[in-house]
Fold this sequence. Notes:
CATH architecture: 2-Layer Sandwich
Strand order of the largest sheet: 1-2-3-4-9-13-12-11-10
CATH class: Alpha Beta
Number of strands: 13
Strand content: 25-35%
Helix content: 10-25%
Distance between the termini: 16 Å
CATH topology: BirA Bifunctional Protein, domain 2
CATH superfamily: Bira Bifunctional Protein, Domain 2
Number of helices: 5
Radius of gyration: 19 Å
Shape: globular
Amino acid sequence: MLFYQAFEAGEVTLELFKTIEFLNLGRLDWDAARDEQERVAEDIAHGDAGDTVLFVEHDPVYTCGLRFRRENFRLPHDASQSLYCGLPVRRAFRGGELTYHGPGQLVVYPILRLPRGGHHLRRLVSFYQDVILAVLQELGIAAFTRPDAIGVWTDRGKIASIGVGLRRGVTRNGFCLNVAVDPAAFEPIVPCGRAEPMANINDFLWQKGTPAASPVLSNAAREEVSGFVADPRWQNTDQSAGEAASVPLPRISVDEVRALVEKHFIRLGREGLPPTKESLR
């Protein structure tokens, strides 16, 4: 019989885990979040801490995974420069290619002691996909995975991305779930190497209208990349002549989605996933 207990401090004890601690870092610069990941991972590797899941909402940044290809920058980019379209570019210790993180996106970094081997890593990725699908199902959003790619999709586009790294038996990075992220920030890149639209949870929950002007990209950058994306979701077809465009109101926050991710991470963990060293004993 599996057993778990939730504490006010955010710790969860499972028979199949040691102790998993869920920490909400709030809004944080990507470099600071990377440093925190590494600090926690080192503590876990040395046996000084238990498995930990970090939640964060990043300042705008482009990150490149281990399979990054330079052609996924749609516009010219000098590799010696740390900025692209006015936003920082960082290398991340994870699989996958180029993507964007920013406000309105929940980023989840589970730092777990994992048995070495690609088989266990694949099981972990499947677990992340199951957590995401469970969250979306609770919100009434139909979503699916693909046999030829990693992530989660809806009929309006990709809604969640996954990229994991493993060093000394401890995972880094994890997955991100788009809640109300600015779609314009993805326009200058080929996200995750696939030329496809990106979806938000609030695409399904917002009222009719058009979103506010992009708070991420400058007007010049938007004009430069405007020819790459022509998504009818962002055009106000109901607007009458002379009538001001209505701005959609978000129906769910990043923090509310974070609570759902934590809930389903715990629930699915009771079923024996993800495969930690303790679960194999």
